[in-house]
Amino acid sequence: MGECRPLGFLIGLPFAFVAVIFSLVGALVWVLGTVLSCLCPCCICCVGAVKLSVSLLKLPIKILRWFTEKIPC
């Protein structure tokens, strides 16, 4: 799958670095949302924040895959 696409990986690294920063923010939001949902289970907005943070945690992998797919073989 990624045998002949090393340039896509290298070009995507700066964007993946930004995505890693977003994922760290997502991890912080996830921890805070989990603590808040345990303290007050009636806060439905905490569930949305936790779902958003999980998508932020997966962002670096998605960006690297997207870049490697865009580079032709």
UniProtKB/TrEMBL annotation:
Q: Which InterPro entries match?
A: TAXIMIN_1/2
Q: Sorted alphabetically, which keywords does the UniProt record give? A: Membrane, Transmembrane, Transmembrane helix
Q: Where are the transmembrane segments?
A: 7-28, 34-57
Q: What PANTHER family does the database record attribute to this sequence?
A: SIGNALING PEPTIDE TAXIMIN 2 (PTHR33834:SF4)
Q: What is this protein called?
A: Signaling peptide TAXIMIN 2-like
Please give the organism. Rhodamnia argentea
Q: From the UniProt record, report the name of the gene that encodes this protein.
A: LOC115754759
